[in-house]
Amino acid sequence: MKKGKVIILGSGPNRIGQGIEFDYACVHCVWALKEEGYEAIMVNCNPETVSTDYDTSDKLFFEPIVYEDVVNIIESEQPVGVVVQFGGQTPLKLAVPLQNAGINILGTSPESIDIAEDRERFRELIIKLGLKQPESGIARSKEEAILTAEKIGYPVLVRPSYVLGGRAMRLVYDTAELLEYIEEAVYVSEDKPLLIDRFLEDAVELDVDAVADGEDVLVGAVMEHIEEAGIHSGDSATCIPPYTLPDEIIYEVKRQTRELAKALDVRGLMNVQYAVKDNEIYVIEVNPRASRTVPFVSKAIGYPLAKIASKIIIGKKLREIIPEVFEIKEPHPASDFRDKNFKRYSIKEVVFPWNRFPEVDPLLGPEMKSTGEVMGIDEDFGMAFWKAQAAAGSILPTEGIVFISVADKDKPYVVEIAKKLVDMGFTIYATEGTHKYLSEKGIPSTRVSKLSEERPNVVDRIRNGEIKIVINTPSGKRERSDAYFIRRAAVEHKVPYFTTIRAAKAAVEAINSYKNKQFTVNPLQDIFG
What is the value of pTM for the model shown? Predict the structure, then answer.
């Protein structure tokens, strides 16, 4: 005898900037509900997903994730409740309207979801908890946007409210660029405000996935982004455990995560994004739902977070679901990867569809562009990064020519990278500005021509197969410059390229590890027994 019906809302049709991570969470939810004796009903409209396979759920409605269709299904099926936290932003937007229609939302309440989504209500919560946020503002007109951005100070991150995958989000550097963005990308009005945040340059970004039951909070993992802050979390390579930050920062991030989960009375999954600058921790945003990193974290730590969260939303407790975790004195291994017994790094790398879009600039930013992800695991950080790159289809070379051209602000940081590459036997090619800077620092390099100069230029050399790695950081302004053609050539000729200093550093460490340490491959099952 079934305990009742539960409807799970999926993520809807797949788009660029949306992988299968939400589908993973939905399928784990279905499995968990079946284990607990419920009839699991799936609502989704994507033929590419496992959640819409005929034998996954007890019943499948292949319908759009919109209010009218969902309400019709609910009226027909009469479930004990509806799950909105596993399909990403699409079903989350229906939480409040469905509750207003008298429908039971299982897990975290629509009120808590709205606090996290509403910029002004969330700011009030952050102040109440004594936490920090980057300075921000809301603009409901073009004039208000200009005043707000000037008050905060450029560069700023701008985006429409309630966006999916960072869509239409942009980093802008001056008023002219802000006006261009408003005219091109968004319509600003009273009902559709623009969110403006101070951009924390040279910050380290962190992602935290946690699961809570109203009493206990299990911090699944703290992930350090390998790319700089400002790149969408779905597009950044990430590492478990954090590899550059001190323990006290990690412990404080976990403490703040628990505070936020309890303040929002989270029942199920929660994702928090932080930025760390000058040892200060800033809360970027909180999503009281499954995040894109849930499958990665679950495989890295050996705990199926989506399945655990699914059992919580139907009334079970963390101590009941995973009692072994709470038998260990806090902080337990699942939330403390700096435990002396922890011996591995797990690195997520993302997969992009650049080769299918020949005109698109393969430059990372706040708008998500990836279509999938892979992971590499090893006891050595460099080797884990090498494996992740290889899994994404980018084999890092162990010799040859490296092309380096970086923005002025990155030149001091690229010196160490260039020196290590030379020490490993690589030859450095650089454009005039970078070549001159490296020469002043005593690092040998060969000057190569820009596109506007004599041939063969740098793009010719990439196409001819001379250059094996490209390190090219953007100067800031969005423009179709030499850098655009360099990046496009690298993509087209499958040359590994890196557009941030942090990623370039990780690549150098990976090459060094691959050259000097033993390469091993182990099944994931062996790690957790």
Answer: 0.87
